[in-house]
Amino acid sequence: MDKIYAVILAGGSGTRFWPLSRETWPKQMLQIVGEDTLLRQSVRRLNGFIPLDRVLIVTTEKLGQDIKIHLNVFGKNANQIKVIKEPCGRNTAPAIGLASLYVKKIDPEALVLIMPSDHLIKKVHEFENDVRKAVEGAEKGYLVTFGIQPNKPETGYGYMKVQKESVPGLTLRKLHKFVEKPDRETAKTYLKEGNYFWNSGIFLWKVSKIMGEIERYMPDMHRGLERIEESLGTDKERETIEAVYSEMDSQSIDYGVLEKSYDVLTLPASFDWSDVGNWPALDDVLEHDAHGNIVRGNAIGLDNHNSILFGSNRLLATIGLKDMVVVDTPDATFISPKERTQEVKKVVEELKRNGKEEHSVHRTVERPWGSYTVLEKGDRYKIKRIVVKPHEKLSLQVHRHRSEHWVVISGTAKITRNGEVYYVHPNESTYIPVSTRHRLENPGKVPLQIIEVQNGDYVEEDDIERFEDEYGR
Amino acid sequence: MDKIYAVILAGGSGTRFWPLSRETWPKQMLQIVGEDTLLRQSVRRLNGFIPLDRVLIVTTEKLGQDIKIHLNVFGKNANQIKVIKEPCGRNTAPAIGLASLYVKKIDPEALVLIMPSDHLIKKVHEFENDVRKAVEGAEKGYLVTFGIQPNKPETGYGYMKVQKESVPGLTLRKLHKFVEKPDRETAKTYLKEGNYFWNSGIFLWKVSKIMGEIERYMPDMHRGLERIEESLGTDKERETIEAVYSEMDSQSIDYGVLEKSYDVLTLPASFDWSDVGNWPALDDVLEHDAHGNIVRGNAIGLDNHNSILFGSNRLLATIGLKDMVVVDTPDATFISPKERTQEVKKVVEELKRNGKEEHSVHRTVERPWGSYTVLEKGDRYKIKRIVVKPHEKLSLQVHRHRSEHWVVISGTAKITRNGEVYYVHPNESTYIPVSTRHRLENPGKVPLQIIEVQNGDYVEEDDIERFEDEYGR
Q: Which domains, ranges and CATH numbers included, belong to chain B?
């Protein structure tokens, strides 16, 4: 087991949970089911059998920094996790290929466990046991897929048809074929026949084996990966990745390799699994009240039935809703019948087309040093509440179009302003004129909260010049 | 026509339009239909035939000040309107009786036109013409009610059954009886028979006649009114009104007088009319899109039908709604099928029971000097945007539990702080320590906008001691 590396695929910028998810804050970073976000749950799931220094996360350039901040909860060891940034999403095959190069460089004989970052598995012990069983097959040179025994005629998942008996000496079965999402009648047949499994997107194999199969079945992509491989660790690495990705096709590993390879086995998994693919999927994994509703946040309801009501701090009052989904966030509310929530994509596209911010950012934005919340934006002004974590500091910076008034609400602020250093305490304020080099820092042991009032002819986030930054920005 | 006074009844604190209406901001102060709020439309409707100095508005103690501010749009003549404050709502009979005393004192032979403040009439010329016709009857000593010819079998209104022919020499008809809200079948019969009219709540009569009829049919109430009449203009006026009201029953003028009197005539009105009694009533008076929706504010929708979607500045995204009502405000969202919106009362009651502010106040609160908007409230702090109108000033005041940081966004602030007077300009700030006598004023010609950050162990509105106030608070 000390040869296994985990590759977590976290590039998804799914819009299906909008407005809770945003382009800059996708589903894997949401805490919609369970005690923590899906991504963090995915990392914790490995606890005990794959240490953090053998965990790689593949994500996009855009999400890279936020994902790193997101992993800070794992403490000092968080930076042992390798975060690989793709220039753009190209489906699973390139992501897996790219991550495999990094693993191969460390240990060409390593095993690699591939996992999505945004699925739910509650039974972590069963998961670990299943990985151990899969190791037997992977070590023998097989590509092992994890199949989930269906408990209902689900039409939203892809299926894998497998042999009814195990391969001699293993608990794994030969894979016959992948099957697209079926209609309900077909799904019922699959359920009855018993040798159809849901494709969980979890795989285990030797890095050498998958690279060999990619070479055989996806030769173009493999040539690109070879170019990247040569550049690894050199100062050409980033630009080579960008060049190769700009020419690479979007392909999934399922159809690029697994459909074609002769060496694929399936492990009938003993753990529970859900891809939490849309709002109605929550009905399978969250608790309901006596009327079948899932209710969160500041919600007051009267005679609602089988509805999903996700409130926020704002008050959400509903009467007589049936089979509806309502999602309330500080800046946007979404309402739809359950059966039509997938159309939220069209809403997000329209927002994007019209240049509306609500498709991409939340009112509260996480930063390596803490977070800020936009309380109001108006003509020539913007008001934010800023929270700086203990011992963290913002970059030394300058704004060319705005000045900033800061009032401290709690904690102590250490301010650097044009070289001068001073402290500001609760119920005190300070002022940063335009074009003044400044830095905000929390030297204390409790969070620092300040209210910032920006004044200027341009109050957007990109009016910032950074001189020194703790976080390499 | 120069003997007519108008009495506008504006005591309603209806919850039926929550969350757009609040206890402190009822329906008559909302701009839901037409160019202005229903109350202001009611005042404007009199333009040209009843001048402002013959307009009286009866409202509650609670709403009195806000109503006065609300009427400021009528400029310098606004204070010619007499605002009469009832200690508490006691239905229409006491309100009409009380207002009649004030009219009678000026002119015992005056005619009084009674009107609700929260109904909609678009055809103001027809309205004026109808009043002129009604005058003929009122001057002959009749109590004239305005009946609306039904155009559908409405079950939400009370009806008046009238004689089929006019009284000789008048365009008015004898009233037979008032009828409670009918069921649909009965309403259909009324529509067919043609001599049933909706009761608009609009009446015209001599003040002497109505006082006489009140004396005859509501002798208890009349005795109370006589006590008040004696106190009018003396320093006992307020306390007498309070004493009488505390013992007075709630009674409507319809059932207290009009049902019993032998001298009631009905004018078949030629103007349009709606009582705008609930959300679905808007379907009769507002424009629809091609799919039968009424849409307002920052709303984005996909395939919605026959729904009422009232957005605010926040984004409201809806898919596939049918016959629904959605009302979004900065601090609360309400969602219900059209046919159940009347149950919103239960929601408001529950909020009240739980001590939630959302039942009573909006995030933006109007004041005589301007307005403030609560941007955020947290532990030991509150953030407001304050707008002071040109040449207006807040009271000279002290807070015992909070200090205030002010940052000017636009306009110029004149500050009085412990006797010192100084000016603060855009992008400048100042500080008011706790227990410091201070005053904020806009000496300029454009609105003054400031951001206020309050700090303290208690940041509620009632921590205020006023020393001088322009508005008699």
A: 4-268 (3.90.550.10), 279-345 (no CATH), 364-468 (2.60.120.10)
